[in-house]
Write a structure and sequence with these properties.
Distance between the termini: 62 Å
Order of helices and strands: HEEEHEH
CATH architecture: 2-Layer Sandwich
CATH class: Alpha Beta
Strand order of the largest sheet: 1-2-4-3
Radius of gyration: 17 Å
Structural class: alpha+beta
Number of strands: 4
Shape: globular
Strand content: 15-25%
Number of domains: 1
Helix content: 25-40%
C-alpha cells in the first residue's frame, strides 16, 4: 500500500529518525556541538543520512523510577518530533544532566534542538569552492 497522504509525502517516519547503533552514538560523543537547558545537554553532529535522528541517555542514578525515566523520554521525543521538520540533517543525542522538576522536562528543549543543530551545521559547513583551508604551521 502506497501512502499518498499530502502531509506525509516526502517526510520521514519518526520511528526511522532514531539513533540505535553504538557507532552512531560514539561518533557524536567524539566530536560535537553542544547546547543545554537546566536539565538536559544536547550534543549534535551532522550525519550523511539526510534527516535528523535522535538518541537519548537517561541515567538511572538521576531518576531511579522507570516511570520517571519514561516520562522524560516521552517529553524529549515529543519535543523532537514537533521541530523535526525544521532541524538540519544531524544526529542529536540528549543526555539528562540533572533531575528535572515534573512538568518542566521539555521546557526550552525545542529551541535548544534548533540552536545546537545550527551550531553543528555552521561548524562543519563545507568551505566554498574558491576558498582553501590554511595549511597547518610547519613543525
Amino acid at each position: 500500500m502506497i501512502d499518498t497522504h499530502p502531509e506525509k509525502a516526502g517526510s520521514i517516519r519518526f520511528h526511522d529518525a532514531r539513533l540505535v547503533n553504538k557507532a552512531d552514538f560514539d561518533r557524536v560523543f567524539a566530536d560535537n556541538q553542544r547546547a543545554r537547558t537546566d536539565f538536559v545537554m544536547v550534543m549534535v553532529r551532522p550525519n550523511q543520512v539526510g534527516h535528523p535522528r535522535l538518541g537519548m541517555i537517561v541515567a538511572k542514578r538521576l531518576l531511579a523510577r522507570a516511570v520517571d525515566r519514561n516520562r522524560v523520554k516521552r517529553c524529549v521525543r515529543e519535543s523532537f518530533r514537533q521541530v523535526m521538520a525544521e532541524l538540519p540533517a544531524c544526529d542529536f543525542v540528549v543526555r539528562l544532566i540533572a533531575r528535572p522538576v515534573p512538568g518542566e522536562e521539555a521546557r526550552d528543549l525545542s529551541r535548544t534542538f534548533k540552536r545546537a543543530g545550527h551550531r553543528a551545521v555552521a561548524k562543519w559547513a563545507p568551505a566554498p569552492a574558491g576558498e582553501t583551508t590554511p595549511d597547518p604551521l610547519p613543525t
